[in-house]
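The data layer described in this paper is built around a simple, fixed record for each protein. Such a record has a labelled line for the sequence and another for the backbone structure tokens. For reference, a complete record is included directly beneath this paragraph.
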Amino acid sequence: MHYGVCHNWRAMEFDVVVVGASSAGLYAAELLLQAGKRVAIVEQEPEIRPARRTLIVTSEILSPLPELSSSVETAVTRTIVVQAGENSCRIRLNPPDLVLDRRDLVLWLAERVRRLGGEIIAGRGFQGFEQDGRGLRLRLGDGKTADTVVAREAVIGADGVFSQVARAAGIEKTRCVPIIQAEVHPPDGGDPETTWVRFDPSETRFFYWLIPQGPDRAVLGLVGDDSRRTRELLDRFLVLQGLRAEAFQSSQVALHHPRLRPWTRVAGVPVYLVGDAAGQVKVTTVGGTVPGLLGARAAAQAVLLDQPYAWSLRPLKRELDVHWGLRALLDRLDEEGYRRLVGLLTPKLQEFLRRHNRDRMAQVFWKLPLIQPRLLTLGLRCLWRKSQPPPSAEPPQPVLDVGGRR
């Protein structure tokens, strides 16, 4: 489904202008439209046709989007196998995680916005702000012509890690890391409802993963700190696993930091960032879909209730801050530390992780050392260690144990 340029919006005023037709931006627009606001969504691409990217999300996504699983093609992950060295652990999920394509999610949200009467202005990039007596004027252009729209009540920036809205408003830029996935045919003997995660800090401070998206398709992926090296590592991993990439998916993903303040005022009009533009990403798993939707809901609440965005964001910020703290500890683990960590995942701790998904950790993470006291000892050792240095140029060869295949 494609959306071209609307031709009746020039020099028009809107209550809220959303810059960026991302899932977070479109969801914010939907909430505002449902409340009766007049909303425009500005997208620099000629049509809303995002690149494919396989996502694995917790069932928490059904809280803001309860109709998702019946409207968008999804697969399920019922088990996550975590590996480090020779240690591994199987964690059953209840409810299961969902696996979907980012493109399908965005197109579905765009259609919902269109049905609610939202103005989708495609083919016009945001170029800057101008003062206007009626609100805040946004300059838009396509490289040949220039136009403007006016936001009377707020501007929401949902234009990704390289947000032009953030730059124009003087909001601190988020850090980002590359994520690369190879679309592959699943290995023989693999369970189509099991996702594998492997930690190897000699190669990346994040992890490798294999996510099935049905019996005939999966993605093998990696998060790193350097795009070129990350691609080299992924290529090597594919060879070691005997897999052939049918296509690649890549993106830059934002990293949350507690000091980020994704809001300001320009000419008296609030400017709120959501999604990757705001760094609304769990840095433990580098997952931003659910946090981005929750950030969008917080931005909509700030507009509709006329309350500070910082207040609306408090629950989400608390959650993301917890993940930031956990990531700070994980970055201090070496190979032996990760082996110990996986070895500490006892049946009782597995049951805890089964019942408490990774998008709702803030209220319960403190129970972890009560369930497994040796986690506290491992955490204290991490505090005494420095963060791991950059991986060496010649990494060891990782092995992913999938369905008994080594």
Remarks:
- Confidence is low (pLDDT under 50) at residues 1-5, 392-397.
